[in-house]
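Quick board copy: two proteins, each given as sequence then tokens.
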Amino acid sequence: MGGKYEETFRESIENPEAFWGRIGEDIHWYKKWDKVLDDSNKPFYRWFVGGELNTCYNALDVHIEAGRGDQPALIYDSPVTDTIKTFTYTQFRDEVAKFAGVLASLGVSKGDRVLIYMPMIPEAVTAMLACARIGAVHSVVFGGFAANELATRINDARPKVIVSASCGIEVNRIVKYKPLLDEAIQLSEEGARPRACVIYQRPMEKASMVDGRDKDWTALMADAEPADCVPVLATDPLYILYTSGTTGQPKGVVRDNGGHAVALKWTMKTIYNVDAGDVYWAASDVGWVVGHSYIVYGPLLKGCTTVLFEGKPVGTPDAGVFWRVISQHKVRTLFTAPTAFRAIKREDPDAALVKKYDLSDFYALFLAGERLDPDTLRWAEKALNKPVIDHWWQTETGWAICANCLGIEHLPVKEGSPTKPAPGWNVKVVDEANQEVKAGEIGALVVKLPLPPGSLPTLWNADDRFVESYLKEFPGYYKTADAGFVDQDGYVFVMSRTDDIINTAGHRLSTGAMEEVLASHPDVAECAVLGVEDQLKGQVPVGFIVLKAGVTRPEEEIIQEVIQMVREKIGPVASFKTATVVKRLPKTRSGKILRGTIQKIADNKEWRMPATIDDPAILGEIEEALNKVGYAKARKKT
């Protein structure tokens, strides 16, 4: 006999139409759907077919009409500019309606694309919701992205208008966006270029404008006529979000309007256990999927107050800034990446700064974006004395594949596991022949089709690539490209990307399992393990470790200890004999470690500077560290 979770999960898998149909009633529809799930064109499944709605109306206007227009919708907290500003639902709806009018005056209408290249400022969220209001499709590109990467996205999306700002602000520097945008437009195909660019001039950096093409945000808003919500089909696209493709051609993940609104509103209570009126904070960026789902759409669809934070977990001004934001704004739930907590742990290993703040309103911490190592989990649990919940999802899925669904039933936490599949996600583990493996055996983590509402229905203008990338290798399933296992209790363990399973002398080993061992060393703040080419064994693991602040012991001593720990916990078969101490690890701006690039450097292969890298200088440090241990006789990057 299962509990409430088992019951909910079983219904979602056995009777998805009744399950999601009931949940769909919680959204405002101009016209109700004809069919909850249309599976007539497999593998292209569509949810709420025939239904008409408007996502912006559901995110803003609905709450005002319910009498909650004076409730804060968005709190902008920017330690880098020393600004805190709160918008009520009514104020924010009015801003969004005006900017929707601006877009309409520039010729944007239903189905047109608008590319948004903005820092973490309220105008970015305004632009996203304004697109949704008039049925336009937004594509947010992380602010400060390299010009050539931006150009490939312009070529693919063919935006009618680009919305940008003069600059973004990092801890020690201003990142000028406008020169990057101008270069990207030059690099893009003539037929793909926008007819207009709307530029928000920030006080600390005035960008030069191109006559005839560039328009000033503030001037346009002063004369704007507010626009009403435009009904769109549930199956019409809401946004395109590009994820890096292996071929260098980015993949445009499409999100529909109907399934997305239904699923995200529902997850706010079911997964995060927050209600309308609660303050919810996703410490991410609007350029990433977490920002789309849980800074913008999820909290506002639910009627929460969302926090938009322009800063870093450390350095703006210190490792206590997260606790300050939680305390000051009475945040109930925080969602961020484990890397943020590793940065905080590194600067403040004893969590002394937590004690300065009143966290009595704080309920739970959710982490996602990469594996949550047990050491960071335990540190956060001890520092906060609150539930710390790991959950697993991807840009493509739009929300959690696996989570401890606190709003259904708070299940026991198992270290190293994001708990069980969320309702709607039929997770299986299969071998190379697409056969399910036994409990406890490592294989490819896949999801049985159809995927639930809110996940990607396809890629932008690339149905064949969608099938090729996600559905072809394991027919009948969505390929997550993650490897792991499901234990006897049904808990899912995501060990590593499938390409992080290394083959050492015929043994398949998970680098994630080795990282877990390294992370448990008391002096290690964070780490990465890579498989490096070896003539004798095929691949051997190499460890990179970043030490906690204040560690003065000899590095060689610590390296010997971690090597011994891997030997004891995983065995000599792991062949783990090489580790090196580095000051920091190269990461994307969303906090993911750039393992693929490190591996190419180690294997002496051609590599390209990743567009998403946070600080390119780190790769030079990695090259030096690899040279020290006998790898990477540095071939130059392309």
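And the next:
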Amino acid sequence: MATQPSHPADIAQLLGARVVRAVEHVLGEQITVQEAVIREAAPEHGADYQSNAAMALAKRFGQPPRQLAEQLVASLDVEDLCEAPAIAGPGFINMRLKDSWISERLGQLYADPRLGVAPTDSPARVVVDYSSPNVAKEMHVGHLRSTIIGDALVRLLRFRGDEVIAQNHLGDWGTPFGMLIEHAVDEGLVQATGDAAHGDGARGDGPRGDGAGAAGAAGAGAHAIDDLNSFYRQANSRFQADPAFAQRARDRVVALQDGDAGTLALWQTLVQESEAHFRDAYARLGVLLTDADIAGESTYQDQLADVASELQQRGLAVDSDGALCVFPDGFTGRDGEPVPLIVRKSDGAYGYDTTDLAALRHRTRDLGATEVLYVVGAPQRLHLEMVFAVAAEMGWLGDGKQAFHVAFGSVLGEDHKMLRTRSGDPVRLSELLAEAEDRAAAVLAQRGMEADAALARAIGIGAVKYADLASDREKDYVFSWERMLAFEGNTSVYLQYANARALSVLRRAADEAGVDTGIAGGAGAGAPAFDLREGAERDLALALLRLPAAIETTLADFRPHKLCTYLHGLAVSYSGFYEACPVLGAEDGLRQSRLGLCELASRALVLGLDQLGIEAPQRLSPPPARA
């Protein structure tokens, strides 16, 4: 599990601490807040929270659960927070918060830009490895989940107060680059010099350097590659059909791995061309990755021999049929034989096993990460578990340093098969995002709403991202335009619309008061006295108070769908309040209270959507007919 905040961040922890003290008084036993088993109560129980501590402890202490619950209630000091606790069923302790306490907390939230989400007292340094497309191939729908989930986690961790180092582990090295470079030269997309064609053994400043050799190999004659996928297919076809081209490609791989300056320059031109495509996709998606976050496979090439040597010195790497392998304990195949990580192949080449070991060593040893998150598809589970096991044996993990595989499932079409085009190819990300914007514009037009390009993008891209994040990441999910762009249900559009309705009420109130923004003088006028007369007001207030818990539970196991579930519940609560509680027509004191609830609801929705990387447009419809 991830590092937890060192202070109570939500009501459940606050109540749990009171139950802990009651258990100590009654049983003389120290338990944790988690063992107080505080849960949100179902509405039919007439309570807000429920403790199952008596049920969990009764067997251990040989007492009937209800009898133990009665003793705990007698010692439970919650008078400042709750009405008198009640026992239900075989020993559940039900607690209903006092309206006066809720109102006081709402006032505190109103004055807090973070809405009660206190930054952690013990920030971690976290590396998040995500997105990781391959050079010379366009991003497709398969890159969607890593990019979106990783970006949301980066935002959430930074909001919590952790120091986050994003790492985009591009597939930018290996044997395919021989054919790609040769094809680019033949097509006139890069300009070869004598050094590039034949190699003089010189090296620039490394694979990402600006050495003189690099400057001499690619010049003003370089052209853009409009279609990376087509370029890759053409190169591969030539490699398969033309023996002379294939030999040149193999020679180019040798030159690349030997550090030939001209070949490195040609390689770098291809990398930069691909990075331009990736940059466009990230900008359109609104993710935080920049060129500074790129740390591809090439970054670690100079470290691979040293990693192999270090593994040998520790006695972990051994010869196996000419290859250098590590056999971590506990990993066996179907035949019961140990499964290896191949550190160095029999031909002397290094593969991605070694690259991943070098990257993890760098991240914990050189970058000083205490947590490393790998936002990588579920099929890589075994590989990463083996890498983590070897890293632990080497001391690169352990002693406060942890690595987590943030696994995710696949994106399926409505036929429940892998989402692909009619030709069977993966759906290009650029085409999918363009379609999202077009469909969003059409949906808004059908509802009589004016949509410029910016609004269509906010709705369409938000819908794609939310549909991904709202699903438990380890499960496959079905990609459905109709469902994700719906104004009802657990969609980003529903959340965006709820926020727009709240802002519309606030604008009308501001217009009536003759002020520019906020409620009756703006947010700077101070918190209103919150008056919770109706059940819908109280429900919304409770939903607002539960934001800190939602963010904490989301980060506990890196599952953004938990924040999505919370935000949907908040939007439902706001909609219920909007329908049941007139705002602008209420008497002065109540009007101020309800305007305050509108403002808090908007702020919470905007904050939550921002943590998911989703925009919250201020307008989605004309002002409501009633409020």
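Board note added afterward: The first strand starts at residue 38 and ends at 40.
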